Structure formats: structure tokens, C-alpha cells
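Backbone-to-sequence.
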């Protein structure tokens, strides 16, 4: 059985909770509806009281009984009647349909079986709710009734009397009224409700005194609600009423419907529980609400009167059984309001009970539950429930139990008749002797009193007394042949023993078996048998008897109850799976049966889930018939759910399995499979986008390895080339060749080509030739490809319009696509081909490329259809697919995957299985080559650290063929960036200007990884033609470290011709001189917001006397945003001076590149950057964004209000975070250690509390001298990334500190225990949380009138990590924390402060969030007090309660308490 949320004991006790009816006046409901709740809904979340030892009573033997975990069931009287059978069945079906299965994987099948079955638990809970209480049991009847009136009513006492009379009439004045009440004298509890915002407290207390004097203080309570002020009304988080609020009835226009208060329970149940899916053929409930003629709306003419029809009282029907013959639907038979379906006397005075008026959302009603309820109101509700139990319910139970015990003990020893006495003395009956009960007991019969005593003891936890009463009643009912009563007593006796768990007494499982048998065979009541089976299987599951539980589930299946049978069969399957050893085949078989019954019940999604879980067991065992049935059913169910892709996958696997092994299906059945599959493919094609690639078809079977390619190679010599740059010369160092070779390899990988020497020409390439090199073919020459196709089916297949599928990349720009009719390539079409059954045939297809490029054959596409019906065809099977006609041909494809010969040259190749690379399908279409020429303009010889300088680059094609692709590679991408767009005429020689900070609308650090060492330069359409010239601007940025720096470039151009791409090198030197040294240290700010303070230190180390002017400071961080309102002083740094800047960044939610919120620390590179800037000078020029258009894969500036509009600034900001592996692998001199394992996700989430990852961008300018000796202004920018909190980061390397030598020890000490792996240390764990006290700075209090001054304090708890934390606060005496005081007025702080109320509160704070904890401090005299002296500790959510870490962040906050002197009143 799947794991349930409740244990067996919890499920049983929840099913038999003490039930209390609630009757309220319209005024009370109006008060409660200010919170969008009825009175019953308002009280329900507080009915589970976990106060051990508080609720006690004495049993008839005067023993003290303690009720533990008391959970009351409060029922609205107007909704307490069970719904009709057809409504109950729809509710059961809807609760199963709304509990969706767990999400599936990419292949459409769950990865594992679900650990829980929420749909079964929801169905089980709903079943117990809609099942009417039986005449033989009292545990589901009302033991008490709460009468609620408002203190603001005109006559509250009169309303209480009317409600009491109404309750008495419902219980004693109706023919079947007593069947819903536990006894004749149930507990009547009187509740006076006061709206604190509308009714004065004094008048409400006066009314309550009258109520107490009239009914006694023990059965009365005064409840005050709605004390929250309007300006503080917010929804409660989390919402405790979410699981108890029923669906509101609505009108046709979507507005909440107003119930008049006189509707019958049947009408209200139908209105609130309308199904979201109406089954065709069923009667639906009325679509409009009418007004009862006795309601106030009818008197004012607000509605049309509703005729009241009298219906005869009939026994309640089971929601699982078939509808009764001749039953009147609820939409026709509308009884008058009485709570039990009977007709009320029109002459009797009307009592409006539980009349609800729902607030209108359109009229500005409330938007959340409990918005008018304060924390004090919630405490009052809890106190009300506790007082009702202690002062009313427990004494009432004790009196009832004593009275019932006296009745039982005073019974005569002689039976009521001679016949029953003879049965008891000389033998008992056996169930099954009579078809129905032959004994009808009165309400006061001794046997009924014994059963009532057992039910009362069972509900209130006295299981020993309950078992004794049930056992006595069992004998009496057995002797009287009262089999319904006998089965109920036996069932409850077994449950009493199970819950008691008593002292070695064996569990009587045969009692439950006997109860189920009696319910089924003798009483003919399967609904009670089902309930007993649910209890029995839970008991068996608790004792690990899963096989017996599965048999009981299977026993209760029936042909006329598909939904019930499907759920029980599924649970039986899970029981087989949990048995020891697991019965996998039984599990899969019963899941198949469950899926079939789910399908019959209309639950297609659950049917699909059941079949998928069964397929996991049957898969891979070679049971072809079972696999075919499962795949065919999965396809049909997926098609019915409009999941065409899943249906295509399932039916495709059905045909693919037939192609893999020998199938046993008949030709007619295989034809049906193909016909169904073709129909699904057409549905997928109709829903797919136009021009989409055709789907892959499983038949026919393509023997890819036997594919042969015929080419006609034509090799041409490459053209000569020249390079005006430095290029490769004899002066190049020999050790530098490896670096250039590596750059060349990177360029070739980016181009998708391989660097190969001369290779032989192979005209026909097959699986027996050497296919390691790409075949080369001249343009406009055809390539023939021979395919070997096999039809594995026993029906002929017809293929039409066959042609090769390919991708072709023109060297001028990359025109790719599988379309076979592109102008560059012509794929010749074969009109028709017929594959006979179980036949193999060779098919030859041709393709021709008309221009140079890379031609890759991916596969072939075709149209598939059935050639003809088989000669010995059988009638098609019945079903939805049988009536479908054979669909026309569908378009599909199949890939061609080949591999080379098996390698056998080395020992490793001979011992393993290795294959050579096969490139027979990757053709190179060649033409003439091209030539590159590279020149620079304005290339400097020296730069300042961080200086940005533009260089104009000219690329010329002097060859005879155009250049289609152009790559630029560099070993140091941090040094230079090539602007891909051409510069305007007026901007070709301009210097960079400092501008606003980067615009990061869609900017993230992950974009830096796409930059790399190779940059592709976009070329105009048609490429760079011979004689063409290309102007680009190359931006240089000097590194932070001074000294000589190499400047190296490799240009690689791909041309349409034989040979390798054209390469061009350039090697130069740059002298980098110092400019400024920048360091950043982040520290946490104290305040209501989560913010950081970045201390920026700028030191002038430039060699010249010109000052460095700081123009702009910007911060780029994924989780922080710059606070532009914080003042920042402008700075001008002279040589040898140091300037200090301070900026503030605030915590913001992290957004990823996908657009969703993310708290995963492993996806930090995908987090969008929040970039803000502050101008430090008034003349900071803005950059012209129009002259720097983006291209290629480079990030585009977003639409943020703050951004670096200059293209190179964005590029170098991203390249600052670019981390690449070494260009050349290091030469290892020995074995290297294992790479450090990455931190765990939870450890990284905790470490996020001190991880900043904020990059500070500082733009500056200074005066310099250009190459011509003219004075000019140079610009630059520095990047510093602050990674950790309170840790300095600088542009210059910090001096290595000498570590002190360890002391010399004679006896080595025991090494300390290492910290847990992948876990942050103490420097992180003690800085996860900060607490900020929020209070008034000064308090005025009159100590003469009231000696104690209570100061409310709100502790703002801030979680700085990305992990949910449970924060514990401890209010300790002020004297113990005096050592932590650092304020200048610490010596004047008084120590006479005491925390009152909650002294050790705790709260769960979400990741990156905050929470508020209300506390209170009390002082007895005026003075200065410190309210921040609280201890803070935290632990991870879900960790042990003892796993607390003390936090080091403490905030001191002082409050001044002044004495308020009251001026004496003049005589």
C-alpha cells in the first residue's frame, strides 16, 4: 500500500471524532463573514487541542481518564445532512480527479512508483464525510450543540431561546430527528459573540452576565472577534483556514451568491459542491438561487418565492451504491429547511439558523481569510475551545458515562423473552441465519445503551471500557440475531483493541473479518463493509501484513462500482509491492486491472498513470503480448487526453518492438496497430507548427550500418595569401607554436571542421572503408546513397516520395535546414517503393549540392501507408480504433547513424570495444580559396592599468574566392574585445568616454562563458568578396597588474575551396604602467532592510602628476541593487593619495535568465544582474549607444533605467568574470590529487548568507600623452569583485603574510575533528541571521496609576541565507549581556527590565526573507533601557531541535521611559 499521510491510529481516531453541531444567528454569521468565514469555518482550525493531561474526566469506576490529542468536529447545522447519493458520487469522482498524479519524466513515464496516493486519501476522507450515520452506531452523532448569538442583537436571550427551541424541535419534534443526536440530553453550550469594532465591551459584558445568570457559567462563553484595526488588516500567512473553507456558491456572472439562510442542507451541499465536470446524462443542480418565502428578502420583494414540496422521508442511500429506483433528483424535489429533509409547518415561527451572507468582491469586500482577526482573537478562540471542553464537554461526558453505566448495571439478569433466553443459554446464532435484522430495538433498550456507552468511551479515548461495552453488546446482538448491530459491535471492539494496544492482548483480526462478512453477506450493506475494510487494511498495514490487506481490498471490488474498484485494486497492487519479498508481477497485474477500471470510471489520467507504472515491471522481460497491450492502451489513453506526443511515443514503441523481435500478433492486429499509429501521427501533424521537421517513424527498419555513399571527388590547389600583420616568421619562439596550434584548433572546432593532411580519395564509402576523413565533392555533382530497408511486419508497407534529409551550411553565413528543396541542394525524389511483409529491399537516393559548403546527410524522409489489407485478415477488434478508417499516408523520417570499423590495433582496443570515427555522411563541397590581410591603426605601445583604448582594424580579402566565415582568437580574452558592428564614419578614431553603468535587463554572468577565446565576426550577405574590405574597432583594456604584456591575435577565415581555412597571426607587446589601486570591503548594514555597505578605497599610484578623476561608480550583482539615494562624495585622487567611497546595496529577489525566481545556489551564473550606478562628477558624459550596435552572441544592453550604454564597458565587465581553462594543459610531474568536490546544495544555500558576489565597476579619467606627443584625455575602468562578507578584495595582489610557526610539543596533541564535508564553517554559520528591534524611541508612562509599564517590541528577524531557517530568540536578563554593550551610553542603561509574555519564541524564516516576532518588556521605573539584549540562535528547517547555532549579530537599541505626571484636578 502506498504510504499515507496519516497513521492507522490517526485515521481511525479522525473517523470517530466527537461531533458538535453549531447553530448561529444571522448576526453572528455577519460578524464572521467580515473575515470571509462562517462561524464553523472560523472555529475549525482550532478544534485540535494538543494539551496532554488538561482534559480529564472520571469513568464509572472513578478512575481518572486523560484525553490526549482531542480533536473535535464542528459541523454547520445547515450543511450537516448527508448529500444525496448522486451528489455524493459526483463529489467522490471529483476529489479523485482533482488529486492529480505526480509529474512525469521527459519520456512520459514516472521515474518511480509514487510514494503516496493523495487521490486515494482524498476519496477515503470524502467517503467518510458523505456516508450517512447508521442506525446501529452513535460515534458519528452529535454529542453537543453550540448556540451562538450576537451581543449586538436586539434580544440575545430571546434568540438563544429560539435556537434552543429549534434544536429541541430538530431532535424531538421530527420523526427521524433523534437519529442524528447522541442522546436525548445533549450538551447545549451558549456562545455570545461580540464584534469588538462595533459593540462596546461594557454592553457586551452586561449581556453576557444575563446569559450566565440564565444558563449558568459552566455552559456559556463570551467570544470577542474583529479586534484588528482597519489599517493593519492583512491576510494571515500561512492561512490556517485554507483547508476548511468550502467552495462559495456563485451566480452566473461570477459574483458570490447570497444564501437566504432557509435553504435545505441538500440545496446548500449541491450549491457549494458543484462538480467542475458535469457528466453527460446526469441532472445538474439548479443554476440560480431563489429566496424562501419566509425569509426577509421575500418580504421586501428581493426574490421570487420558491414552492415547497413535501417529500416522504426515506432511508439514506449509500454514495457508492446505485441510485434508488424512482428516486426524485435533487433538482426537482426541494424540501423545506429542517435539517433532515422534512417539511416544516408554515404556521410555525421561522428561525434563521446559520444564515450566511457572502461578501461581494466587486463591492470592495474582504480579499483574505481572517483579515479582521488579531493574534488576541486567535488566542480567544483557542481559549473558547479549551473552556468548552473543560467546563462543558468533559463534565457532560462524565455524567453521560455514569448514567449509561448505571443503566447497564441495573439490567435484569433475565432476558426479555423466553426465546432469547433459550438462545443465550443453549446456543447462539451465526451470522447468515437471517437475511435481515429480525429485532428492532427502542432508543432506550439496554443493548442500545451498552452500545452507546461503548461509542462514548471510544470517542473520548477510554478504549478499555469501550472494548468491554462492545464485547458485551456483541454477545447480546448475536443472541438476538441483530446482525447489523452485531457487525458494528464486532468492528468497534477490534478497533478498540488496536487503539488500546493493551499489554499483550492479541489483536482480534478475525473480529474485523467477521464484521466485513456480516455486512456483505447477511446485511447486504457494502458501504459498511467498505468502511470496515478500510479500517482493517490499515490495521494489517500497521502490522506489516500486506498480503492479507491486498486480499481484503480485492474482495471489496464490484462490477457496478468502477471508481471504488479501481482505487481498491491500486491499493492491493501497492500491498503486493510492499510485501516481503515484493510480488512484482502481482503488483503490475493489479495495476493493469486498476487502470482498466479507472478508464471505465472516466478517470483517464489515473488510468494512464496506472498503465505507466505497470509498464515499468513488464518492460524488458520479453512478454510481447503484455507489452503490446500496455503500449496500445497507453497510446489510446494519451490520445483521448489530447497528449498526441505521448500517444505517438507509446504506439511507436509498439511497432518498434515488433521490428526488434518476432511478434505473435496476427496480421489483422498489426494492421490495426499501424492504422492507429498513422491516425495519431496525423493528429500530431495538425497540432505542430508549419514547416516543422517530420516525426521519426519506427517502421520500416533501416539497416544504417549497411548504408553506402558514392562520391566523385575533385581536389583543387589552394590560392596564395598575404598578411600585412606580423604573422608567422623565423623570429617566432619555438615554444609559442603550441599556443598558436591550440588557438587554431579552437577556431576549427568553432567552424565545425577538422585539421587534416592530404588524404586519399574514396569514391564509394561503406562500413568496410576508412571513413575517418570527410569526403570532398565538387559542386553540382550528385552523391548517391544506398539504403537497406527491412519490413518486420506481416503486412505490406508502401513508401512514397522518398528523399534524403540533410543540413547544408553555406560558407557565407550558415543557411541550415532539413528542407530538401533549398536552392543550394537538390534532393532527388523516389516516387514509390513497396515493402512486402518480412522483406528486405535496397533503395537508392541521390542528392546534389550546387554551391560550396558543408553537406551532412541526416537521414531520409518518406510518406508511409498500408499497401493493402492482408489476405487472411481477421475482423478488427472492437474499440474506439476499430471504427476508424485507414488514414492516408503520413510524412515521417528516419535518421542514418553509422560507425566505423572496430579498432584492433592496441592491447586496449583488443580487450575492449572501440570503433573508428565514420564521416562518410559528412561531405565537404569545395571551391576556390581566399586570402586575408590584416592591418591596425592606432595600436598603442603602452597603457595605464585599466585603461580602455580603441584600435581600428581593417580586414581585406585579396584572394579569388569570398570569405564566408571569419574567426578571431586570442589567448587572453580579458585584454581585448572586437566590436562586431562597423563604426560610424565620425567615430572611427574616437576615444572611449565614461558613461552610465551597464544596462542589464537580460545580463548575467553566464553570458561571459559564451565569449571564450574565439569570436566569430559577422560578415555581410555573400561573405567578404574578393577585394572587399571590412572595418572593425578593436578595444583594448590594460590589466590591473603593471609590466609588459603580450598582445596576440589569430584570424581564421573559411573559404569555399579545398584545403584548410586561412590563418593569420599577429604578435605584439604592450607596456602597462600603474594608474590606481582599488580595494572593496563589504559589511552588513543594520536596519529594517537587508543591505550591505561597500567600502571602496582608491589609491593613486600613477607615475604622472595628473590626477585621476573618478567619474562613476557602479555595482553589478545578481542579488543586490545599488541604493542611489545614499550620498556618495565625488573624488579626485592625486598621486600618493587615497580616496574613500561608500555605497549601499539592498537585497532584491534573484531572477534567472529564464525569467523565474531562483534560490538554487548552483545556478548563480544564470542569475540576472542588477546594475546601478552613481555619477561622481557633474560633467560625466553619456556615451552614444547608437554607435555601438551589438552582434553575434554578445549580450545586448537591456531597457534598465541604469546601464552602461558603451559596448566595450559591458564586454570587459563580462570578461572580468570569464574563467577559462589554461590554453595549454600543464605538464604534470607526478600524480595529481583528486579535484575538490563541489559543495552540497544545502551548504551552498547556507554559505549564501556571507557570499556577496558583487562586482564594483569604477570608471575614471586622467590626462595623458598620445603617440604624437599631444596631451589627451584617457579613460579606463577597474573591476573588483567582493565575494565574501567582511573580506577585502583588491585589484592588486595582497602581500603574503608569514604564518607563525607552531609551538614545539613533546607529545603531539590529538588533532581536532575535521568539520563535516561540504559544509560551511563557523565564520558562516554564526552570521546567518540578524535581529533588529523595532519600537518607539521614547515611552511616557504614569507610574502612579499603574506601577508596571509594558513596552511592545517587534523583533525583525532577517534570514540572509538561501535556506529556510528556524530562528529561536531567548530573552535573558540584561546583566548577562552587559559585556556586549558598545554604545556610548551603555553605562547609563538600567538593568531593571524584565521580558514578559513569550520569552523563548521561535519562527521559521524563508530563504532571503524576514519575519516579525512580537515581544513585550516590562519596567517599573523610568530610565534608559536596552531592548536588543536577546539571544539569537538558528537551525535549518527540518534539523534537530538541538542543532542550534548561536548567532554573533546583536543589535543594541535603547528606549527612554519617562514618568508621566498627571496634573491634579482643581477643586
Amino acid at each position: 500500500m502506498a504510504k499515507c499521510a496519516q497513521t492507522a491510529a490517526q485515521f481511525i481516531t479522525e473517523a470517530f471524532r466527537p461531533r458538535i453541531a453549531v447553530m448561529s444567528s444571522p448576526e453572528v454569521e455577519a460578524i464572521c463573514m467580515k473575515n470571509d468565514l462562517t462561524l464553523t469555518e472560523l472555529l475549525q482550525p482550532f478544534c485540535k487541542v494538543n494539551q496532554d493531561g488538561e482534559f480529564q474526566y472520571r469513568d464509572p469506576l472513578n478512575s481518572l481518564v486523560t484525553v490526549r490529542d482531542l480533536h473535535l468536529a464542528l459541523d454547520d447545522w445547515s450543511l450537516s445532512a448527508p448529500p444525496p447519493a448522486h451528489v455524493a458520487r459526483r463529489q467522490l469522482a471529483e476529489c479523485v480527479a482533482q488529486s492529480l498524479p505526480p509529474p512525469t519524466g521527459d519520456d512520459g513515464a514516472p521515474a518511480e512508483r509514487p510514494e503516496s496516493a493523495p487521490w486515494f486519501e482524498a476519496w477515503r476522507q470524502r467517503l467518510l464525510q458523505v456516508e450517512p450515520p447508521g442506525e446501529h452506531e452513535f460515534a458519528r452523532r452529535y454529542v453537543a450543540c453550540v448556540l451562538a448569538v450576537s451581543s449586538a442583537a436586539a434580544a440575545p436571550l430571546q434568540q438563544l431561546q429560539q435556537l434552543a427551541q429549534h434544536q429541541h424541535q430538530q431532535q424531538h419534534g421530527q420523526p427521524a430527528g433523534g437519529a442524528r443526536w447522541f442522546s436525548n440530553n445533549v450538551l447545549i453550550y451558549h456562545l455570545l459573540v461580540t464584534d469588538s469594532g462595533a459593540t462596546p465591551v461594557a454592553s457586551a459584558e452586561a449581556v453576557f452576565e444575563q446569559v450566565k445568570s440564565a444558563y449558568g457559567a459552566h455552559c456559556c462563553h463570551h467570544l470577542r472577534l474583529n479586534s484588528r484595526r482597519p489599517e493593519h488588516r492583512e491576510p494571515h500567512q500561512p492561512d490556517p483556514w485554507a483547508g476548511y473553507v468550502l467552495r462559495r456558491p456563485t451566480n452566473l456572472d461570477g459574483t458570490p451568491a447570497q444564501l437566504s439562510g432557509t435553504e435545505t442542507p441538500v440545496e446548500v451541499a449541491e450549491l457549494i459542491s458543484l462538480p467542475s465536470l458535469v457528466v453527460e446524462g446526469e441532472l445538474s443542480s439548479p443554476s440560480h438561487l431563489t429566496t424562501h418565502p419566509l425569509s426577509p428578502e421575500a418580504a421586501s420583494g428581493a426574490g421570487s418565492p420558491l414552492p415547497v414540496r413535501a417529500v416522504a422521508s426515506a432511508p439514506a442511500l449509500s454514495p457508492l451504491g446505485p441510485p434508488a429506483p424512482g428516486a426524485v433528483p435533487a433538482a426537482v424535489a426541494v424540501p423545506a429547511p429542517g435539517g433532515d429533509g422534512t417539511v416544516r409547518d408554515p404556521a410555525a415561527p421561522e428561525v434563521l439558523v446559520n444564515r450566511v451572507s457572502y461578501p461581494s468582491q466587486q463591492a470592495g469586500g474582504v480579499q483574505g481569510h481572517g483579515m479582521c482577526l488579531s493574534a488576541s482573537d486567535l488566542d480567544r478562540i483557542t481559549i473558547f475551545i479549551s473552556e468548552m471542553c473543560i467546563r462543558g464537554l468533559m463534565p457532560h461526558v462524565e455524567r453521560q458515562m455514569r448514567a449509561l453505566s448505571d443503566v447497564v448495571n441495573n439490567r435484569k439478569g433475565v432476558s426479555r423473552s423466553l426465546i432469547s433466553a433459550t438462545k443465550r443459554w443453549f446456543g447462539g446464532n451465526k451470522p447468515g441465519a437471517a437475511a435481515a435484522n429480525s429485532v428492532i430495538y427502542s432508543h432506550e433498550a439496554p443493548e442500545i445503551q451498552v452500545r452507546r456507552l461503548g461509542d462514548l468511551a471510544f470517542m473520548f479515548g477510554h478504549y478499555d471500557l469501550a472494548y468491554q461495552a462492545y464485547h458485551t453488546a456483541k454477545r447480546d446482538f448475536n443472541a438476538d440475531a441483530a446482525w447489523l448491530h452485531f457487525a458494528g459491535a464486532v468492528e468497534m471492539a477490534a478497533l478498540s483493541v488496536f487503539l488500546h494496544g493493551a499489554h499483550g492482548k492479541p489483536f482480534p483480526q478475525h473480529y474485523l473479518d467477521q464484521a466485513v462478512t456480516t455486512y456483505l453477506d447477511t446485511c447486504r450493506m457494502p458501504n459498511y463493509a467498505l468502511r470496515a475494510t478500510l479500517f482493517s487494511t490499515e490495521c494489517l498495514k500497521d502490522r506489516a501484513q500486506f498480503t492479507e490487506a491486498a486480499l481484503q481490498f480485492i474482495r471489496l471490488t464490484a462490477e457496478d462500482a468502477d471508481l471504488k474498484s479501481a482505487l481498491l485494486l491500486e491499493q492491493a497492487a501497492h500491498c503486493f509491492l510492499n510485501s516481503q519479498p515484493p510480488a512484482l508481477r502481482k503488483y503490475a497485474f493489479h495495476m493493469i486491472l486498476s487502470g482498466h477500471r479507472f478508464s471505465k470510471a472516466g478517470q483517464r489520467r489515473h488510468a494512464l498513470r496506472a498503465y505507466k507504472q505497470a509498464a515499468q515491471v513488464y518492460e524488458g522481460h520479453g512478454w510481447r503480448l503484455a507489452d503490446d497491450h500496455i503500449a496500445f492502451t497507453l497510446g489510446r489513453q494519451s490520445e483521448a487526453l489530447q497528449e498526441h506526443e505521448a500517444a505517438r511515443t507509446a504506439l511507436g514503441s509498439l511497432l518498434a518492438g515488433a521490428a526488434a523481435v518476432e511478434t505473435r500478433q496476427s496480421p489483422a492486429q498489426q494492421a490495426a496497430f499501424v492504422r492507429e499509429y498513422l491516425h495519431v501521427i496525423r493528429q500530431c501533424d495538425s497540432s505542430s507548427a508549419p514547416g516543422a521537421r517530420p516525426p521519426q517513424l519506427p517502421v520500416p527498419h533501416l539497416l544504417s550500418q549497411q548504408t553506402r555513399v558514392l562520391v566523385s571527388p575533385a581536389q583543387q590547389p589552394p590560392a596564395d595569401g598575404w598578411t600585412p600583420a606580423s604573422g608567422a616568421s623565423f623570429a617566432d619562439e619555438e615554444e609559442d607554436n603550441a599556443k598558436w596550434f591550440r588557438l587554431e584548433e579552437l577556431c576549427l572546432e568553432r567552424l565545425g571542421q577538422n585539421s587534416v593532411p592530404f588524404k586519399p580519395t574514396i569514391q564509394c564509402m561503406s562500413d568496410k572503408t576508412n571513413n575517418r576523413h570527410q569526403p570532398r565533392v565538387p559542386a553540382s555533382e550528385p552523391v548517391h546513397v544506398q539504403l537497406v530497408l527491412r519490413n518486420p511486419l506481416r503486412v505490406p508497407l508502401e513508401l512514397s516520395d522518398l528523399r534524403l534529409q540533410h543540413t547544408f551550411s553555406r560558407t557565407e553565413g550558415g543557411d541550415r535546414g532539413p528542407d530538401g528543396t533549398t536552392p543550394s541542394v537538390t534532393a532527388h525524389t523516389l516516387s514509390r517503393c513497396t515493402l512486402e511483409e518480412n522483406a528486405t529491399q535496397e533503395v537508392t537516393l541521390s542528392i546534389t549540392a550546387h554551391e560550396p559548403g558543408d553537406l551532412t546527410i541526416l537521414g531520409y524522409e518518406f510518406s508511409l501507408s498500408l499497401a493493402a489489407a492482408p489476405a487472411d485478415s481477421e475482423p478488427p477488434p472492437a474499440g474506439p480504433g476499430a471504427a476508424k478508417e485507414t488514414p492516408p499516408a503520413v510524412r515521417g523520417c528516419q535518421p542514418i547513424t553509422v560507425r566505423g570499423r572496430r579498432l584492433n590495433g592496441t592491447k586496449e582496443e583488443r580487450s575492449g570495444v572501440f570503433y573508428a570515427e565514420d564521416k562518410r555522411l559528412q561531405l565537404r563541397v569545395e571551391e576556390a580559396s581566399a586570402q586575408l590581410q590584416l592591418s591596425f591603426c592606432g595600436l598603442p605601445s603602452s597603457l595605464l592599468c585599466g585603461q580602455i583604448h580603441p584600435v581600428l582594424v581593417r580586414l581585406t580579402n585579396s584572394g579569388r574566392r569570398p570569405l564566408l566565415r571569419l574567426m578571431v582568437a586570442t589567448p587572453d580574452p580579458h585584454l581585448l574585445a572586437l566590436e562586431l558592428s562597423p563604426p560610424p564614419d565620425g567615430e572611427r578614431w574616437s576615444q572611449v568616454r565614461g558613461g552610465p553603468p551597464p544596462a542589464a535587463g537580460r545580463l548575467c554572468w553566464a553570458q561571459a562563458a559564451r565569449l571564450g577565446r574565439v569570436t566569430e565576426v559577422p560578415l555581410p550577405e555573400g561573405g567578404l568578396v574578393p577585394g572587399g574590405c571590412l572595418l572593425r574597432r578593436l578595444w583594448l583594456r590594460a590589466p590591473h597588474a603593471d609590466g609588459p604584456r603580450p598582445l596576440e591575435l589569430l584570424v581564421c577565415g573559411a573559404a569555399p575551396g579545398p584545403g584548410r581555412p586561412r590563418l593569420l597571426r599577429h604578435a605584439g607587446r604592450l607596456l602597462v604602467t600603474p594608474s590606481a589601486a582599488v580595494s572593496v570591503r563589504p559589511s552588513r548594514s543594520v536596519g529594517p532592510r537587508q543591505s550591505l555597505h561597500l567600502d571602496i578605497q582608491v589609491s593613486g599610484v600613477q607615475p604622472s602628476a595628473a590626477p585621476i578623476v573618478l567619474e562613476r561608480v557602479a555595482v553589478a550583482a545578481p542579488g543586490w541593487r545599488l541604493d542611489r539615494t545614499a550620498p556618495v562624495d565625488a573624488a579626485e585622487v592625486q598621486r600618493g593619495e587615497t580616496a574613500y567611497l561608500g555605497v549601499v546595496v539592498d537585497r532584491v529577489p534573484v531572477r534567472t535568465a529564464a525569467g523565474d525566481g531562483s534560490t538554487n545556489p548552483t545556478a548563480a551564473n544564470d542569475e540576472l544582474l542588477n546594475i546601478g550606478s552613481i555619477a561622481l562628477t557633474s560633467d560625466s558624459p553619456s556615451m552614444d549607444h547608437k554607435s555601438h550596435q551589438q552582434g553575434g552572441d554578445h549580450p545586448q544592453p537591456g531597457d534598465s533605467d541604469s546601464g552602461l550604454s558603451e559596448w566595450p564597458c559591458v564586454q570587459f565587465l563580462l570578461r572580468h568574470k570569464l574563467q577559462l581553462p589554461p590554453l595549454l594543459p600543464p605538464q604534470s610531474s607526478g600524480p595529481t590529487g583528486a579535484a575538490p568536490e563541489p559543495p552540497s546544495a544545502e551548504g551552498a544555500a547556507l554559505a549564501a548568507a556571507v557570499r556577496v558576489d558583487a562586482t564594483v565597476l569604477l570608471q575614471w579619467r586622467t590626462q595623458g600623452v598620445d603617440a604624437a606627443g599631444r596631451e589627451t584625455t584617457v579613460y579606463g575602468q577597474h573591476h573588483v569583485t567582493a565575494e565574501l562578507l567582511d573580506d577585502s578584495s583588491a585589484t592588486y595582489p595582497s602581500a603574503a603574510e608569514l604564518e607563525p610557526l607552531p609551538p614545539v610539543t613533546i607529545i603531539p596533541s590529538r588533532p581536532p575533528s575535521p568539520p563535516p564535508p561540504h559544509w560551511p564553517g563557523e565564520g558562516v554559520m554564526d552570521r546567518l541571521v540578524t535581529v533588529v528591534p523595532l519600537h518607539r524611541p521614547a515611552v511616557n508612562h504614569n507610574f502612579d496609576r499603574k506601577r508596571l509599564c509594558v513596552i511592545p517590541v517587534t523583533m525583525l528577524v532577517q534570514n540572509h541565507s538561501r535556506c529556510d531557517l528556524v530562528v529561536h530568540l531567548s530573552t535573558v536578563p540584561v546583566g548577562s549581556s552587559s559585556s556586549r554593550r558598545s554604545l556610548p551610553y551603555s553605562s547609563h542603561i538600567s538593568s531593571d527590565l524584565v521580558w514578559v509574555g513569550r520569552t523563548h519564541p521561535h519562527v521559521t524564516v524563508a530563504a532571503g526573507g524576514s519575519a516579525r516576532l512580537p515581544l513585550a518588556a516590562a519596567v517599573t521605573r523610568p530610565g534608559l533601557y536596552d531592548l536588543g539584549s536577546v539571544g539569537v540562535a538558528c537551525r535549518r528547517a527540518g534539523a534537530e531541535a538541538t542543532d542550534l547555532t548561536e548567532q554573533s549579530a546583536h543589535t543594541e537599541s535603547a528606549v527612554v521611559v519617562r514618568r508621566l505626571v498627571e496634573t491634579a484636578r482643581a477643586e
